[in-house]
Amino acid sequence: MMDFGRLITAMITPFDEQGEINWDATSDLIDYLIEEQKSDSLVVSGTTGESPTLSDEEKINLFSFVVEKVAGRCKIIAGTGSNNTRHSIHLTREAERVGADGVLLVVPYYNKPNQEGMYRHFEAIARSSSLPVMLYNVPGRTAASLTAETTLRLAQIRNIVAIKECASLEQVTQITAAAPGGFKVYSGDDASGLPAMAVGAYGIVSVASHVVGSEMKRMIEAFTGGRPDRAAALHQSLFPVFKGLFTCPNPVAVKYALELKGIAAGSVRLPLVAPTEQEADFIRSLF
């Protein structure tokens, strides 16, 4: 079974002044996330990577570039999910072709399939590839939620190995209590990461790890090492950052925070916009 590690960073996509992918900045960011922020895996072209505004060509080029740059130092999870099953199969096959270690598949958004539709969607994509699949349930964005029951049904498929769960701690508990051996649950919400691990989650798919990843790794290691009081103290100290980075639409705040740290991230593509002056002041106050 694929082990993506405990701390997975949902990586931003750096842009230049013309709004195109900044490949030099992407290269530097990868080194920084692995070496300084201790990421075990990187999600490439997820929502934090502004996938809705990336073309298929850009996504595939990103997958290939990151795989080559990482050179085995961490795992690469390609964001290939969409609300179009055939399109997701195409991107998943391309991710496999260029050497990604796994794929992240979001619950179909906007068309709001029922549970059987979701099951068949994920089943079709998983069976189209040998890559390990991480499901992604984020009802706040998709307007539809994968139930614990459907998740457990999908977990029986050989290469569906994990879920990034954002619905609730109750759902994390239900899945971890009944999942087959080797199936891992990740919190998709930084602020709920440690509480999710307390009820059985394996790790965190994080945005905040761009800027406080090394501290988050210490928090996770304290928890898994039998020091829950230390883990709780670290969680409490990081909590303002966990919440503060979502004061404006993601990844607006984290890109600005990276720029404050001297890490080239660039701005965001429309329809997202740069932080207002008030938002920028607040983000600066977090650090």
From TrEMBL:
<comment type="function">
    <text>Catalyzes the condensation of (S)-aspartate-beta-semialdehyde [(S)-ASA] and pyruvate to 4-hydroxy-tetrahydrodipicolinate (HTPA).</text>
</comment>
<keyword id="KW-0704">Schiff base</keyword>
<keyword id="KW-0963">Cytoplasm</keyword>
<feature type="site" description="Part of a proton relay during catalysis">
    <location>
        <position position="110"/>
    </location>
</feature>
<feature type="binding site">
    <location>
        <position position="48"/>
    </location>
    <ligand>
        <name>pyruvate</name>
    </ligand>
</feature>
<comment type="subunit">
    <text>Homotetramer; dimer of dimers.</text>
</comment>
<dbReference type="GO" id="GO:0008840">
    <property type="term" value="F:4-hydroxy-tetrahydrodipicolinate synthase activity"/>
</dbReference>
<feature type="site" description="Part of a proton relay during catalysis">
    <location>
        <position position="47"/>
    </location>
</feature>
<dbReference type="Pfam" id="PF00701">
    <property type="entry name" value="DHDPS"/>
</dbReference>
<keyword id="KW-0028">Amino-acid biosynthesis</keyword>
<keyword id="KW-0456">Lyase</keyword>
<keyword id="KW-0457">Lysine biosynthesis</keyword>
<dbReference type="InterPro" id="IPR020624">
    <property type="entry name" value="Schiff_base-form_aldolases_CS"/>
</dbReference>
<keyword id="KW-0220">Diaminopimelate biosynthesis</keyword>
<dbReference type="InterPro" id="IPR005263">
    <property type="entry name" value="DapA"/>
</dbReference>
<feature type="active site" description="Proton donor/acceptor">
    <location>
        <position position="136"/>
    </location>
</feature>
<protein>
    <recommendedName>
        <fullName>4-hydroxy-tetrahydrodipicolinate synthase</fullName>
        <ecNumber>4.3.3.7</ecNumber>
    </recommendedName>
</protein>
<dbReference type="InterPro" id="IPR013785">
    <property type="entry name" value="Aldolase_TIM"/>
</dbReference>
<comment type="similarity">
    <text>Belongs to the DapA family.</text>
</comment>
<feature type="active site" description="Schiff-base intermediate with substrate">
    <location>
        <position position="164"/>
    </location>
</feature>
<feature type="binding site">
    <location>
        <position position="205"/>
    </location>
    <ligand>
        <name>pyruvate</name>
    </ligand>
</feature>
<dbReference type="InterPro" id="IPR020625">
    <property type="entry name" value="Schiff_base-form_aldolases_AS"/>
</dbReference>
<comment type="pathway">
    <text>Amino-acid biosynthesis; L-lysine biosynthesis via DAP pathway; (S)-tetrahydrodipicolinate from L-aspartate: step 3/4.</text>
</comment>
<dbReference type="InterPro" id="IPR002220">
    <property type="entry name" value="DapA-like"/>
</dbReference>
